[in-house]
Amino acid sequence: MERAGGATTEPNPMKRKPAEETLDPPDEKEAEEGKVMPVELLQDHKYADIFPWLYRLNDTSETSRESMMISLRPEEDWERASRQQVGCHMLQIFSLKLSSSPSSITSTGPIQLYGFMALRDPIDPLRNYVFKRNRDDPFIVQDLHSDPFIYLSAGPKRGVYVQNVVLLEYDIKIKTGGDNRDHHHHHQHQEEEQDSPLINGVAVFSLPMWTHGPVTNRITGDRGVAVDISRCFIHNAVEITVQVFISELKPTTSSGGINLSITGRISKVTGEIKVFHDVVDQPCELNKFVVAVGYLSCLFLQFDVPGTPYNYLNLFAFKARRNGSLRDRRELHFATVDVIATCSILH
């Protein structure tokens, strides 16, 4: 993609410098916690003409970089990298919440969502998916009032580095047409045309909101629908890759499985990370997820199943280090849960 108007006389906003030098000074009004602010769209940013080129928006490929890149290197390479830095500025998404729906969709019944939401950063500006579902396997919001969240169990694939800006790309629809799995291509296209658009576009996260909790931005669609995204920039952070294994479901568990939810918290940061909420009906490994945690801070993971008594054993804690894995296996009331948390410097 060519830059509009040829060469630009403005400095390249993504030129590598220490993050403290490149980030704009925080705006106290914009950084106010608890306030829902409109998201800044790409076309409204002063660098809107060159960001598509820098972030390769014409390339829809998924990032090839995995989490735990430093921790999986040979030891001598990791030691060399760890001497250079301890952590970096990272973006953490806390939650996605469906805050409204089209009037044609009942607010008390299930809402089926499909499409994608992805982040792009300077390390590898390809799609790092936060949400990705196809039409045959939509994410279902059972009740907009009791649980309007879109859980983050599908991503991101790795930590998100913040130097100056991060782009958020999204295209999510509400499935209202029929089930197309057994239909011919012509019928599939007709049914997709009946679906309602939720949100579509590209947003820019550029303010260093060094708050004590997430800041919420509202993404508004064309038909009065909206999605709230809560996120926080975390200073001096490392990525923690979490793998959860559910085994030995207890005999007391009903034949329908357990309605498991996993939420996360970061010490010294208010706000809850909506990680996972689904029915688990057999031993399995859940999708791994990545959390940005300040160096030497703790990541807390709470496992909950409705109807089971509160137990402090349901709360797991992992301290963010430069490198290495921590493992915690526990016999909980509903199942045996094995959690592996691997710390790594992002780059």
TrEMBL record:
Coiled coil: none
Highest taxon listed in the record's lineage: Eukaryota
Chain intervals for the UniProt region annotation (Disordered): 1-32
Domain called DUF6598: residue spans: 90-338
Pfam families listed in its UniProt record: DUF6598 (PF20241)
InterPro entries linked: DUF6598 (IPR046533)
Listed name of the protein: DUF6598 domain-containing protein
Organism: Eleusine coracana subsp. coracana
